[in-house]
Structures are given as structure tokens and as C-alpha cells.
Amino acid sequence: MHLSSAHGAHPRTPGDEQFALAAELLALLGDRTRLTLLHALTGGEADVGTLTEVCGAARPAVSQHLARLRLAGLVDTRKEGRRVIYSLRDGHLRRLVDEALNVADHRLNDRPPHD
Length: 115
Description:
The protein is α+β, with helices and mostly antiparallel strands. Helices cover 56% and strands 12% of the residues. The protein has helices at residues 16-29, 32-41, 48-55, 59-71, 91-109; strands at 46-47, 75-80, 83-88. Helix 2 crosses helix 5 (91-109) and helix 3 (48-55) crosses helix 4. The longest helix has 19 residues, at 91-109. The model is unreliable at 1-5 (pLDDT under 50).
């Protein structure tokens, strides 16, 4: 594997705390439903009903995933009447989700054709 300095790479060597938090974040992103929910939120705010339709999971499961994302500080909520509206906490997360999907896209497109 060729390791070169990437554009926009972290300017200093991260410490144990940064590695631990980054690993925790990546573990949260490692779940397909949560990644789908976060990707849906890159397009803007949404409520549980909309997010349930987008990811195709059962509403209770979506609510549990959203609660984990909220407790981890990755999504924000606000009330609109009786509805709870979710949004991404910051642009860094949007870029991380986009990059993860770009890497997946490249890997899928770089595969040799099947016989």
C-alpha cells in the first residue's frame, strides 16, 4: 500500500484520545442503516417518518439508530409541533459520509468484470 500525504490530511500525529474517538465514530458509521440515515440527512433535515421511508427499516429500529446518533453528537434535533426533525451536526460529518461512499464507488468500479 502506498502511503502519501493526502490533501487536507490531519496536520499532526493524533493522540490516543483522537484515535479512540475516531474509531468510535467509524464504528457508528459501520452500520448500514445508520450510514443510510446520515446520507439521507446530507440532503437536509428530515423527520422519522421520512427517514424510515428512505432506509426501508422498521420505524422502531430507525428511532433507535437516530437516538444512538444523537447521543453520539452526530445529529441535532428540533421540535416542529409533535414531530422531531433531525439534521447533521456539522459539515465534517457530511464530508466523511460522502468520502466513505466515494471510496465504495471507486472500489465497485475498479473491480474486474465477472465472467
